[in-house]
Every structure is written in C-alpha cells, then in structure tokens.
Write a structure and sequence with these properties.
The protein is mainly beta. The chain has one domain (about 1-75): Nuclear Transport Factor 2, Chain: A, CATH 3.10.450.50. It contains 1 helix and 6 strands. It is elongated, with a radius of gyration of 15 Å.
Length: about 80
C-alpha cells in the first residue's frame, strides 16, 4: 500500500491529516461483522486521522477512512 499525506495540521499536542492511499486487495478484508474475500482489485482511497499527544506519547488516535468509496471500488453495485 502506498500512503500520501494530502494535508496536515500540527499543534503542540495534536495532529490531524488527510491521507490518500492506493493498494491492491490481496487478502480478506474485515468490515464490521463481515469478511470480504480478496478481489485482486486496485483501490484508491482517502481518509483522515486525528492524534493527541501528551508528554511526547500518543494518548489517542482516531482514523476515519472513506469506507463507502473503497467498498464501491471493490464490490461495484454493493452500495446501491
């Protein structure tokens, strides 16, 4: 998988970023309580993450990928 930071905001104790990624679905993918088998398809995705830092250590990390867009690429028609 290749990940590129599209934009980033950094403060003394927080980091937020928008990322873009590409990769090939070569193994099963777990989404909630379902497992989607490998499709072999190339996928482009975006997402954001937020991290909080205290005393030089991460205290929280939240990631928010655009799952709907990724699933539409892997399973066309599945989101209709």
């Amino acid at each position: 998988m290749l990940v590129k930071t599209a934009s980033r905001v950094v403060t003394e104790d927080q980091v937020a970023a928008e990322v873009e990624f590409t990769g090939t679905n070569t193994g099963p993918l777990r989404m909630g309580d379902q497992e989607i088998p490998a499709t072999g398809k190339l996928v482009f995705g975006t997402g954001t993450y937020f991290a909080s830092i205290k005393d030089g250590k991460f205290v929280s990390f939240r990631a928010h990928p655009d799952v709907a867009s990724m699933m539409e690429q892997l399973l066309p028609g599945a989101m209709n």
